[in-house]
Structures are given as C-alpha cells and as structure tokens.
Amino acid sequence: MADEVLSQNEIDALLSALSSGEMDANQLKEEEKERKVKVYDFKRALRFSKDQIRSISRIHDNFARMLSTYFSAQLRTYVHISVASVDQIPYEEFIRSIPTKTILNVYSVEPLDGRIIFEFNPNIAYAMLDRILGGKGSSVNKIDSLTEIETTLMSQLFERALDNLQEAWGSVVDIDPMLEDFEVNPQFLQLVSPNETVVVVSLDTTIGDSSGMINICIPHVVLEPIIPKLSVHYWMQNENSKERKPEEYQSLSRNIKQTSLDVSVILGETTITLEELMFLGNSDTIVLNKSINQPLDLMVDREPKFYVQPGKNKHKMAVQVLDEIKGGDQDDE
C-alpha cells in the first residue's frame, strides 16, 4: 500500500503539535506498530471488478433503450426505462429486497449455465396488463388473484421482449434466452445458494402515470464463463479487430447489385404561369428547355447520373447512354 503524502500545511500542523506537547512521538510509533485490520464480510464477497460492473451497466443501458421502444410499441403509450443501479450482492439479500408478492420471470440463457430472474414490480406489471386489455394503464394490485388468462398475457409480453436482451448481449456472447417459469412468490425461487454472489441490475421504469422498478438478477455462475469478455481490454480489442471477411464483402456486394432503383428520363422542363396553365387547350404547344439535338438527363432516384439519347429497342421506347454526368461531391472521392 502506498504511503500517504502529507501537504505542507499538514506537516506544519504536525510539527507544531509535537513541539507544543499536544502529541507524543512515542505514542505515534506505538500506533504505527499496531496491526491495521480491514473489515471483510464473507457474505458479501465481491467477485466482479468495477471494470466488469461498468461493462454490465453499459450492456443494460442499451437493453433499457431497446426495451423502452419495444414496450412503447406494444402498449401504445409513453414508456421510459433507464438503468438506476448495478450492484453485486448475496442472492439472499436480493430475495429479501423484493416484495413478498411480485411478478417473477425465470429465464434460461443457453449456452450459459444457470438461470436469470426478471422481477417486475406489481405497479409496472399491472399497468402493462391494463394497457394490453384496452385500459388507460392504471395499476391495481391483485397479485393474489391472477387469472390464467392474465398470467398468459403477461408471460407472452415478457417473452417477446427477450429478443432485445439477446441483441443487447450480442456484443459479448450469443445467448438464446427462454422463459422457463412464472412465479409470484420469491420464497419459491431458490436458483443458487443464499450466499452466492449475484449481479442485480435495477431499471427505473415509467409507463404512463405508473412507475416502478424492473430488477434483473444474474447469478455469478451465469457470468463466470464470460467474465474475461467483460473487461475494457476485451471491448477495445474487439473494436480494433473488426475486419470484414472476404465472404462478407462478396455477400454485401451481391446484395447491393440486386438493389432496385427508380430510373427516369427527363425530356425537358419549362416554367409557365398559373393563368397559362388554366387556359391550356387542345393543340397548344409548350416549349421545353431542351433542343432535339441535346442529350437528355437520366435520373437515378431523382439524381442526374447519365446523358442519354432517346430511341427504340424492339418496338419499345429506350434510351442509349452517351456519357456520365460528373460534378458535385462524388467527383472529389
């Protein structure tokens, strides 16, 4: 452990105290010899570094944004979700911290071992259910009397949200999350031992006029195989090593070549007044700004690309490309 560096004012105050007798030099030596003990709670073993916790927070920031968009579309109302905190605590402490009656969804995340828990606060869960059933999104806590239909509707809504979780974790590991269990009493869920370290991601959620928390509990056993990938070094190395493979270039080129474009040919343009337009009749002639000896402009998605001349090909109107129209920013590339 590095020695503490004192400021000049602290040194002067210390010398002054020693000279005046307020402090005893021998006493200071005895205190220095005493063994310094740091309290460590084995029930709260820290198994994730701050760097890894920040990576998990970054992943779920992205997940929260995607979840906000998904629930807004499904519920047709204002939804805002953001990461409130990311902590590592014993599993027993997590179970004690959530309500005795709540909405719990247990998911497997193959190929990772173990399962994770999504805890939806009843205020949030019932606001979602009310919106699905055509209500205004009000929250009425009736968790003790959930019907089978209500349970099915909630499960389907939460299960379809798993695509967002899969995409958010895609930068670290490809997972296939699946809903395995739906529960309302946390005492019936014993995923890991009480002292096992879990990461709890708390999402602050607002749906219409209702607000509450969505808590995601991820046991250490789930994250253990991918812990090295949660470091900043991995993220930086992964960003620097993103090079396309030859087959990816070929696939991209093939898809671009098959893209459809709108192509049109402008015979000419002119400007007339509204009065002239109103009095146009049969046999009237409109003079365009193009001479019959001038090439026409071929437009690709309303952008001029080629000079062409009109003609026929197998009894169909056609144009022949004469030259490319050059100019603009593209010529500088």
UniProtKB/TrEMBL annotation:
It comes from the Bacteria. GO terms for biological process: bacterial-type flagellum-dependent swarming motility; positive chemotaxis. CDD domains: FliM. Residues 255-325 form the Flagellar motor switch protein FliN-like C-terminal domain. One of its GO terms (molecular function) is cytoskeletal motor activity. GO terms for cellular component: bacterial-type flagellum basal body; plasma membrane. Belongs to the FliM family. This is Flagellar motor switch protein FliM. It comes from Gracilibacillus kekensis.
